[in-house]
Amino acid sequence: MSAGQGIGPLLVGIDGLALDESTRELLRHPAVGGVILFARNFASVEQLRALVSELRALKQPRLLVSVDQEGGRVQRFQGPGLTRLPPPGVLGRWFSRRPDRACDLAYRHGRVMAAEVLALGLDLSFAPVLDLDRGSIVIGDRALAAEPEAVSELARFYVAGMKDAGMAACGKHFPGHGSTAADSHHCVVTDARCEPELESDLQPFADLAGSLAAVMMAHVCYPAVDQRPAGFSERWIGQVLRARLGFAGLVISDDLDMAGAAPAGDLRERLDQAFAAGCDLALVCKPASVQALLDDPRLSVPAVDAGRFERLYGRAMMTMEEQLLVPEFRAWRQSLTELNGADQ
Fold it and tell me: Which residues are identified as catalytic?
């Protein structure tokens, strides 16, 4: 693609707390449509607001600015002015005892998380996790619960909270990473179950398909369906997610630098196969990998339709300063903070 043909499909990681000229040049590349920020990009609320403001002003259509701000082990931005979010698994433990209270807390979790991320100037947090908590090292209490019915019910309230704050929802990691122990960040992961045994993992994605603006794929191989990791499989994306489950939003690859993506080849081959399988957007989180891809004269990527892409842009309802003036919002934040030390 070239400038003027649409929005670039790469969501890329950057280094540093502020933009230098080489990073600005990289982000202006027509293949780049967005940025994913990490703890390495955060020092304070004020610093992050300045960084995001510069990112948003860098090009038109503007960059999508995203983060993983799930709570628990995966909360990139932490510190004064931000709520310490409990791990989503806490909500599942409440659900087993007091489902009504758990659903209320799930709404608060999604609402507060999204409102704070939007108030920092970002658009999107890749949430909720729809995996099942069934023995995965990397998922664990990032999942809402072990049972699909509980995950679906809690996720409905979580997504409603995100929507009311002004944020779209991205379910992950399709078709489910929670039932295999290994970590796809560090190794090739295979889930050897037969197709009927995979159905429970699919259920939350099926139940939420109409409420999600995006779905992120898992770097897991399910040989009963396809030998390739799901994010490089037309069967998983086209036949199951699109045709069978009726998902009409954007499909996003997980980070192509992860070891779990290795069966697809080198980095450019992974990118090519992800798009060929039906991914609309691709995550490349290591800045050195981004630079190598953009320097490759063989790079060819499809443009993303602007109308579909812009559904991921956030629409903040309140600034952080305004949030603190709303008693209900202060109470929600306090209830979530208390969950970190009193899971009962």
Answer: 185, 254
Domain 10-339: CATH superfamily, name plus number: Glycoside hydrolase, family 3, N-terminal domain (3.20.20.300)
pLDDT in tens, the chain (344 residues): 443 457 999 999 999 999 999 999 999 999 999 999 999 999 999 999 999 999 999 999 999 999 999 999 999 999 999 999 999 999 999 999 999 999 999 999 999 999 999 999 999 999 999 999 998 889 999 999 999 999 999 999 999 999 999 999 999 999 999 998 877 898 888 999 999 999 999 999 999 999 999 999 999 999 999 999 999 999 999 999 999 999 999 999 999 999 899 998 999 999 999 999 999 999 999 999 999 999 999 899 999 999 999 999 999 999 989 998 999 999 999 999 988 865 54
Taking the model in full, what pTM does it have? 0.95
Q: What is the crossing angle of helices 195-208 and 148-165, to 10°?
A: 30
Q: DSSP E strands: which ranges in 111-248?
A: 124-125, 170-174, 189-190, 214-217, 220-222, 226-229
H helix or E strand, kind and range, residue 295: helix 287-295
